[in-house]
Amino acid sequence: VKKIGVLTSGGDAQGMNAAVRAIVRMAIYRNCECFLIYDGYNGLIAGSSKIIKAKREDVSGFLTLGGTAIGTARCMEFREYEGRQKAALNIIKSGINALVVIGGDGSLTGADTLRSEWPSHVKDLLKDGKISESDAQTYTSLMIVGIVGSIDNDLTTTDITIGAHSALTRICEAIDALQSTAFSHHRAFVVEVMGRNCGWLALASAICTGADYVFIPEDPPRGEDWETRMCEALQNSRKAGKRTSMIIVAEGACDSNLNPIKVEYIKEILTQRLQYDTRVTILGHVQRGGSPNFRDRYIGTIQGAEAVEAILRADASTPSLIIGTLENKITAQPLKSAIIFTQQLAKEIKNKNFENAIKLRSPTFKK
Ligand code: ATP
């Protein structure tokens, strides 16, 4: 019998609950057992009080809930070998032989590390007398399946990550609201949206709201004096009759020397050089809060169901998998491909190879 543990980890994202619900229900439907692991990797390290066998009704009403109902955490202990060994012991004690992790790239990297170390954890636990010989023979491998829950849409193994649609919807609503007050007073607004290494939310919201200027980490303003070019673009648009100026800044935006571009700095330029009545709005956590939209409920549900199917198809030679949706088709690809992509992108930005960063990112933008 497959015994599937499910946890959510890292930042919460709307639609994670839909995935958890689908995993529990699909697991039960397919005669598996399912365990809810509360508070991310902290729960896996804490053990039995946080690893609870799930019944169908335990996930009733989950579809419409924002955040993650089983809790999430950033767990420093899981970053260390010893912490992961405690998690391995609790996994074996609970009888779990497959784990679904719903989180961002950090959470998925942690899960992949646990899997690659699994034989040595089992060996150490046996040597220390923490598990029996028969346990060591039963738990020879741990299947890992990842689902990307992240409002940033920052992985290419899926067209869209769970939570990104709801966050984008919320940003558009907020910017629409700002547009009406900006229009009344001829104001400029500089709006900071989430996205540390990924400008998808900023770029997509700029497209959807018709913003005048956007700053994203992958494509910093090039060359000297980008400030003057920005001012000219805004002035031209005012000359053409526009009453407002809307500038969207990803929280991780930087210039081509990797100096952060902050909303207050943009405000200063617009106020001093153009004498625009300029306001700053940092949207913050409203972007990830609240009920998921239909799309996140939908992809959370189909990806959760597919995670269970992928576990049932897997054998010991199957690599850790990541579930995604590419060109409207559900996919299960090696988890490593997602992790390598994230590491490569961070490296390209750090080395100021922005052309490469855009090329890497472009499949996500294109689709
Ligand atoms: P978000 O995109 O919202 O930031 P994330 O999953 O990337 O989500 P992180 O804070 O990077 O968020 O990771 C969540 C947790 O996953 C960490 O607190 C840690 O427990 C585990 N984790 C992250 N990176 C690693 C790693 N390299 N090795 C082991 N565990 C890790």
From TrEMBL:
Q: Which UniProt keywords apply?
A: Allosteric enzyme, ATP-binding, Cytoplasm, Glycolysis, Kinase, Magnesium, Metal-binding, Nucleotide-binding, Transferase
This entry carries the following GO cellular component terms, namely: 6-phosphofructokinase complex; mitochondrion
Query: In this protein, which residues make up the domain named Phosphofructokinase?
Result: 3-311
Q: Does the keyword Magnesium apply?
A: yes
Q: Which GO terms describe its molecular function?
A: 6-phosphofructokinase activity; AMP binding; ATP binding; fructose-6-phosphate binding; identical protein binding; metal ion binding; monosaccharide binding
Q: Identify the domain of life.
A: Eukaryota
Q: Where in the cell is it found?
A: Cytoplasm
> Which segments cross the bilayer?
none
List this protein's GO terms for biological process. canonical glycolysis; fructose 1,6-bisphosphate metabolic process; fructose 6-phosphate metabolic process
The record's family statement is: Belongs to the phosphofructokinase type A (PFKA) family. ATP-dependent PFK group I subfamily. Eukaryotic two domain clade "E" sub-subfamily.
What is the protein name for this chain? Answer: 6-phosphofructokinase
Origin organism is: Smittium megazygosporum
Query: From the entire protein, which fragment is shown?
Result: 213 to 579 of 1015
